């Protein structure tokens, strides 16, 4: 590895701080069902891999060297992968994803906790305010945005493999919740679902 890039790695306290920072967002979702834990586990695994490859050791680079006996230049499946093409834009997209995704997670939690989770069974109402006015699953959108932002910042082999898995898990969880909400709220939910997208606003 070029000595110019060695300063990026071996920063294990920074690695731990990143994992704790992103893991804290999971405090805003419930874990009373087994189905909720799989996407959460995949998210924390994704962010751990991101932090380790960014600040710990370049695992993707070592894998390619072991498998093919070749060293990849900085920015090719390790390091800031978009820096050679679009400069620091990838970093700015990462920051924008953190802000947007974090807002959706916290704001979604605030609305749904107030009107649904904190209520007794059968007393909660269908939440349609705040970010729920535009999308049905803002929290899951937030987690996917956080992970996507990490790809813009530091895409590696492991992250490129994990992101589709994460997306599928959150999609399946959202579909399951949609069915449950339809059983609970009937036509009210159907009318709401016709106007809002699952993860993105409908035009």
Structural summary, described in words:
With 203 residues, the chain is mostly helical. It has one domain (3-195). Helix content is 66%, strand content 0%. It contains 8 helices and no strands. It has helices spanning 12-23, 34-56, 59-68, 83-86, 89-117, 138-154, 157-185, 187-195. Helix 1 runs antiparallel to helix 2, helix 5 (89-117) packs antiparallel against helix 6 and helix 6 (138-154) runs antiparallel to helix 7 (157-185). It is elongated. The mean pLDDT is 84.
Provide the helix percentage.
Answer: 55-70%
Overall average pLDDT: 84
Largest sheet: none
Low-confidence segments: none
Q: What would you call the shape? A: elongated
- The structural domain count equals 1
What is the compact description of this entry?
The chain contains 8 helices and no strands. By secondary structure, the chain is mostly helical. The termini are far apart.
Strand and helix map with partners:
Blueprint: H1 12-23, H2 34-56, H3 59-68, H4 83-86, H5 89-117, H6 138-154, H7 157-185, H8 187-195
